[in-house]
Input
Amino acid sequence: MLTPLATSMLAMLCEQPMHCYEMYRLMLRRHEDRIVKIKPGSLYHTMDRLAAAGMVVATGTDRAGARPERTTYAITPAGREAMTGWVRGVLAEPVNEYPRLPVALGEAHNLPVDEVVGLLHERIARLEALLATDEVLVAEAYECGVAEAHILDAHFQIDMTRAELGWLNRLLDRLESKELTWSTDR
Output
């Protein structure tokens, strides 16, 4: 079973062979860290697992100056099949991914209402900043000629952020107007 990180790495290797550090830099430049948890060590570990499973193959090594040696990898037919199979499965079948926010919302009643209101204002401000950044990135991608099919993930993130902002703002309105009652005997 592939992880989201492994899937993203295999997809990048569909574009061209590359080494892990190049992949890491490209993922950060593309802001893929918004949808996949990316750590340099995780990339190397994941690449080792993909190589052991025959999904990638080393195509060469190089060294630039005093930097460590870097191994370049290419995707194999088995890797391409695994990646496209993972994508097909995730697109077709919804899975509960256990996000943390619903748990925090479900337990927010354990905090004073004024604190919850303040924390929600903080979250909204951060989400609005992320949304603005994502919208700029999508606009820049279009200016660079990136096809919409290549940034569907960004459009999904933007719409999900807008939906969360709408829901949180409605909740804040209800809390601040006292329409939503809050237990204060804590």
Observations:
- The mean pLDDT is 91.
- DSSP finds seven helices and three strands in the chain.
